[in-house]
Amino acid sequence: xxxxxLKRKLIGTPLRxxxxxxxxxxxxxxxxxxxxxxxxxxxxxxxEILLVLxxxxxAALSKSWxxxxxxxxxxxxxTTSYRQTIHAYPSGGGAYVVAKENLGxxxxxxxxxxxxxxxxxxxxxxxxxxxxxxxxxxxxxxPHRVYLGVFCIALITLANLRGVRESGRIFSIPTYLFIVxxxxxLGVGLAQHFFFGEGNAAAQDLVAPAQxxxxxxxxRAFASGCTALTGVEAISNxxxxxxxxxxxxxxxxxxxMAGILLTLFLGVTILSHLHxxxxxxxxxLVSQLxxxxxxxxxxxxxxxxxxxxxxxxxxxTSFAGFPRLSSILARDRFLPHQLASQGxxxxxxxxxxxxxxxxSSLIWxxxxxxxxxxxxxxxxxxxxxxxxxxxxxxxxxxxRTSGWRRSVAINGxxxxxxxxxxxxxxxxxFIHGAWIVIALIPLMTMGFRRIHEHYTLMxxxxxxxxxxxxxxxxxxxVVPVSGIHRGVVTALQYxxxxxxxxxxxxxxxxxxxxxxxxxxxxxxxxGTDLVILDSPYRSVLGPLLxxxxxxxxxxxxxxxxxxxxxxxxxxxxxxxxxxxTAWFIKGALLFKKHVIVVTDVPxxxxx
Amino acid sequence: xxxxxLKRKLIGTPLRxxxxxxxxxxxxxxxxxxxxxxxxxxxxxxxEILLVLxxxxxAALSKSWxxxxxxxxxxxxxTTSYRQTIHAYPSGGGAYVVAKENLGxxxxxxxxxxxxxxxxxxxxxxxxxxxxxxxxxxxxxxPHRVYLGVFCIALITLANLRGVRESGRIFSIPTYLFIVxxxxxLGVGLAQHFFFGEGNAAAQDLVAPAQxxxxxxxxRAFASGCTALTGVEAISNxxxxxxxxxxxxxxxxxxxMAGILLTLFLGVTILSHLHxxxxxxxxxLVSQLxxxxxxxxxxxxxxxxxxxxxxxxxxxTSFAGFPRLSSILARDRFLPHQLASQGxxxxxxxxxxxxxxxxSSLIWxxxxxxxxxxxxxxxxxxxxxxxxxxxxxxxxxxxRTSGWRRSVAINGxxxxxxxxxxxxxxxxxFIHGAWIVIALIPLMTMGFRRIHEHYTLMxxxxxxxxxxxxxxxxxxxVVPVSGIHRGVVTALQYxxxxxxxxxxxxxxxxxxxxxxxxxxxxxxxxGTDLVILDSPYRSVLGPLLxxxxxxxxxxxxxxxxxxxxxxxxxxxxxxxxxxxTAWFIKGALLFKKHVIVVTDVPxxxxx
Lengths: 607, 607
Fold this sequence. Notes:
The structure is a homodimer. By secondary structure, chain A is α/β, with parallel strands linked by helices. Chain A has helices at about 5-10, 25-40, 45-55, 65-90, 95-105, 105-135, 145-160, 170-195, 215-225, 235, 245-275, 285-295, 300-330, 350-365, 370-400, 405-430, 435-460, 485-500, 510-525, 540-555, 580-590; strands spanning about 475-480, 500-510, 530-535, 560-570, 595-605. Chain A has a 5-stranded parallel sheet, with helices on both faces. In chain A, helix 2 (about 25-40) crosses helix 8, helix 5 runs antiparallel to helix 6 and helix 7 crosses helix 13 (about 300-330). The longest helix of chain A has about 35 residues, at about 300-330. The model of chain A has no long low-confidence stretch (mean pLDDT about 90). Chains A and B meet through helix 17, helix 18, strand 4 and strand 5 of A and helix 17, helix 18, strand 4 and strand 5 of B.
């Protein structure tokens, strides 16, 4: 099967530009689509808090719910702050746009770098956590988690290359299944505890403290739990997808999402505390909790499937966000412009492929472990929160519309709070992996600048303003020949149409071969003189390039065209049997940076 | 440091063709140069016999000397047979030449395949054994033997790329050091045994039998020992290097070499038997023997150094043989002709590099263990012995010069004996690795045929006999443009010198960009019409190729030249920021196999 057919099978037939369309979403559908990223963090955020606290022994686990309360409070601040962004930027207020418009290009680029990293990690973390939900239920798959993760990402990538329509109806199933099943689990779990006093099954797992319960450790646990906030900004990027009135509907949906997230996150944390669940290698906290509450029966599997599904869905949202942001950056000339154009299925294929590759490599490098990836995750998220809200403060200060003081206060509180949290995360998670992201963001920002510089300089150098095309008095055609055959004769013929001055050039490597060529030349050259170059060191390229340079020097007003007779073999492997001299000549001429035109006159072999 | 400077430092400045020269060798010098390969096998042949016998317990080791006697007898037959080849082929009678001339092309190619494999394995086996001599003396190097081996091969490769003059004086040092030091060791060892009754130091190493001492095992031990004969043919390949009378001198040298080889090989085997040395992982047999006889003192190190040096020298001989044979095969069009030409240091650089790479990979794959490589080694050697001597039989039968009956008898005995040994080796070593070589030889032979076929067919397709160059009534120049800039203007200008009919073609991907181009076109196009192609699927290539095909169909008598305005960035990484559309257009046109001339008009960016 040829490669193009394989591509069609996997990706589908091309779509016409005219087939692009936009579906407007109801609040109910939008909640499902935009909240999968935020809600799915319920699957791992509590566990990440406990994994830090357990270092101070199982007694320290009781500190989980005050930490969760602090995070819930943080969520309220961020949500309130983002509600303002939604109203101020009804066309979509991503951190890059807000920061660039209000704070300047550099803060915008820093926000962009943070967001791109965030998108990549959303995929890696969500898929790792989704695979953990699956392997918790089916432990024999546990050793294969890296392959499972990479396989999942490959599937999502492929689906997105085909172009996933964000169809509200289908996408709302996992989200609502997740919300409903978790709500039931929380209800039943709390009821068991308060009415029947059950839920101490796991109490025997006592863990001795490895270190003291310091303030630093508490802050580290808090920092880990802050991953619960990832994805909160999603709605503010997608306002245009809502039905009229867009901003109002988006704002209401954001409030709903925050409420549900808060309930589920606090619920899971409190329930884990009440049921004395201790994080364990090989099984997620949610899986343990569900087993504890329902036993390993039908409803346990519903919880695991719902968890896995919403996490995969969360990963999928990045496959819309990352390519969209890359294309905006590419159009602003901060990324290669290949990222700016849509592929034949009307999606930004290059961005999708890049995201799939990078996210898979992370899964591979971090051995598919959610816990290992978490320290990298929250830095980018909170950096973009901070920049976006600081941008909003500047926005209000510049506009001074009615109620601007209140708006400044709200966004200011958001910016300051998230900046403080960012510092906490960076400090407590630094050695665990946050340093990677902290190092990467300035590097990426510098990369954006370099790319921008190149495009700007190129545009200047290609600009027609004041351009005086160079005039040449004559043309000289140089035909390097390796002997005399059909390909050479055709090339000589072509060269003669270019110019009355054609020079066939041959490099003498072997006395006998040169003699033989001399004898046959007359009858086929059609009057073209043969220049024979000496090559004491048996190099073909050297004497040829020297000759061409000599011509340039002696004819400064002439335009030189090198006409290459190229014999094209019928099969790819036949190329290995040829010298590729033509290719080397082209490369060497490019390297010289003189304006020399190179012409390929092909002669095709048929077998 | 630029790459070319690095190359000059490593390889040296180019040498002129006129600097090639041939030094004629005395018998004394020739013995040193040509016998290193054969003599060096003394370092491992006995050990390989014992490594098989030990499977039947240490008692079975006593069978080593009858086996060694059988091998010595075989050596006499092969030597006598090769003396005849030397006289019949004074210009050099390699197995490829002899088999091809007398038995036909296919047997010749089989011999060539066997020889090439033999050369590669000589390098791998000799270097592995040389490294083993070093690590026996300096055990802390043992875990690094693979790196040591690869490093040795890299050094030899580099030395040969510089061009090692086979200077008799320097090269005779390791060989004569080896002969003399081994002779002393044998003398002292035998004296200790017979006069002082010493030498039972290692007798305590009793090994229990793992299997019965079957005939098959004895044959396997014999097959392993046959590696002692590798390299015996070297002199017959290099007769031209001897002083006058060449054949006579070569023949005398061969006899001397066989005598020395026989003495050393039998000596080491008998001494190992008398001293009850048992092969051991991590230390070679010769090292144990030398320690046993001299203690770990000065003379022990002399033996180890001499062994390592002659083995490295043996590996080095393949670096002359392999590239020489490859170049002969390439000139006969059985290998890519890149192997036929000498590099700028007057050596066949491509063959040298190929040998270095393949031999290093073998060291890597077989973890630097001589014992693991041995089963692959002898098959090729004995196959080429058999073919070469069978060829000699046909030679005498065809010529019927005086004494031809005796000659037929000698070469016939040689051919039959080596054929029998070949069968024994193939059968007893098959599962231990000989199958690889047995599978490889027909594959390589087929490869030679395919390559030959390609060159022959190509020559026919390029032949000028009866060639009628195609006549074109007109030229059409097509200039694909991506906008209007300096590069495009220059390309349009060039296209106009080709033909009065120039078509600038633009693919419409974006309504706004197309409108902008239309507005600016007039003022810079110099009257060339702009053809705008529709692209509903946003592909640039598709519509462009379709357009060109349409032109071809509507103008069957026209020669189409595609003039590509190519913008060449100043730095390599800038290429990543460009679409490479020009490259894709060229690739697609090549693939179509229509005669369309492609012209690059470069515009260089300066930063």
